[in-house]
Design a protein that fits this description.
Rossmann fold, 224 residues, 3 domains, alpha/beta, elongated, 5-stranded parallel beta sheet, 42% helix
Length: 224
C-alpha cells in the first residue's frame, strides 16, 4: 500500500526558516520553529502579535510585503497569510527555489504537513491523518497525552545516561540492546510513574551493578 506521505523528523537547528503571515497561525509556526533550533524570520505587512508577546526575542519580525527574494537561502517556508493567491505565489516561488513549503490549511498544496504532537522530553509522538481530519488527529493526540505521561521523559533521560555510562566504562555496545530490553521488561516505566526510587535502584543494581543510582543518573543531561 502506498503511503500518502513519508514520515520524517527534521533537524532544523541553525537552519534559516521563513514564515510569511503575521497572524496567530504564523506566530505559532514561528514559535515552534524557534523551539526546534531554527533561525526564524517572519514577514508580514502587519502583525497581530509582537515579538515581546511571544517572549521569543530571537525571532526576526520584518514588517514588509512578501517578495520572491525573501526565500533565498531558506531551508523551508510556511505560507500562513489569509490571502489564498499570495499563499499560492509563495508556494510557486518556493518550488522554483527547491524549498519545502507548507501552505497553512491547504494540505493538498503543501510539500509537507505538520503533525499533531505529544512531547515528553526527548520522546516525540507525532500523529497525522494526512490532512483528512485535523479533529481526529487532535483526539488521538489527547488520548496519547493520557497514555504517555512525564515518566517517559525521565525514562529516556535514565536510558540515555545509562548508555553513556556504559560506553565510558568500555562496555561492548553490542550488549546494550539486551540490557535495555531487560530494564524495560523489569517495569522501570511503571516504577518511575509511581516514584518508587527504592525499587528502581534495586532493578538497576540487579541488571547493571551498584554503580548505577537512579537519582544520580536522571540528574545528568544525557546530551552532555
Amino acid at each position: 500500500m502506498t503511503m500518502a506521505y513519508y514520515p520524517v523528523f527534521l533537524d532544523i537547528r541553525g537552519k534559516d526558516c521563513l514564515v510569511v503571515g503575521g497572524g496567530p497561525v504564523g506566530a505559532r509556526k514561528a514559535v515552534t520553529l524557534e523551539r526546534s533550533g531554527a533561525r526564524v524570520k517572519i514577514i508580514s505587512d502587519r502583525f497581530s502579535v509582537r515579538a515581546d508577546e511571544l517572549n521569543k526575542a530571537s525571532i526576526c519580525f520584518v514588517t514588509k510585503e512578501y517578495e520572491k527574494d525573501d526565500l533565498k537561502g531558506m531551508f523551508l517556508v510556511f505560507a500562513a497569510t489569509n490571502n489564498a493567491d499570495l499563499n499560492q505565489q509563495i508556494k510557486d516561488d518556493a518550488l522554483a527555489f527547491n524549498i519545502l513549503c507548507n501552505v497553512v490549511d491547504a494540505p493538498d498544496n503543501s510539500d509537507f504537513l505538520v503533525p499533531s504532537t505529544v512531547e515528553r522530553g526527548k520522546l516525540i509522538l507525532a500523529v497525522s491523518t494526512s490532512g483528512s481530519s485535523p479533529a481526529l488527529a487532535k483526539k488521538i493526540r489527547q488520548d496519547l497525552e493520557g497514555q504517555f505521561g512525564p515518566e517517559y521523559s525521565k525514562m529516556l533521560q535514565l536510558m540515555g545516561n545509562i548508555r553513556k555510562k556504559l560506553l565510558s566504562s568500555g562496555h561492548n555496545p553490542d550488549g546494550h540492546k539486551a540490557i535495555f530490553h531487560t530494564l524495560i521488561d523489569k517495569g522501570l516505566v511503571e516504577l518511575i510513574r509511581s516514584d518508587d526510587e527504592e525499587k528502581i535502584d534495586a532493578v538497576l543494581h540487579e541488571v547493571l551493578g551498584k554503580g548505577f543510582i537512579y537519582q544520580d543518573l536522571v540528574s545528568l543531561r544525557s546530551d552532555q
